[in-house]
Amino acid sequence: MAESSENATAAPVPAPPAAPAPATVLSPAPKMSPPANSGIPSRYDLHAKWDACLDLSIHRVAYSSLAGAFGGLILFHEPSMDVR
Question: Residues 48, 63: contact at Cβ < 8 Å?
């Protein structure tokens, strides 16, 4: 038999979720941030991202070129022949 609305009890209302505790340790500020008046959050600042990307790329190309040149000189040098 189906229960009548008179006998049905109301379901308990769940308690609202507790607010998370505030963080005591602040995360470090990003190296490059947009000007304060631009209103762009630092994670969306494409100028700073491109600057960092180009800087890293230039360093990697320069260092790998130097390492490759040095490695080539060491590995592929011609033995000296002393012919008199």
Answer: no
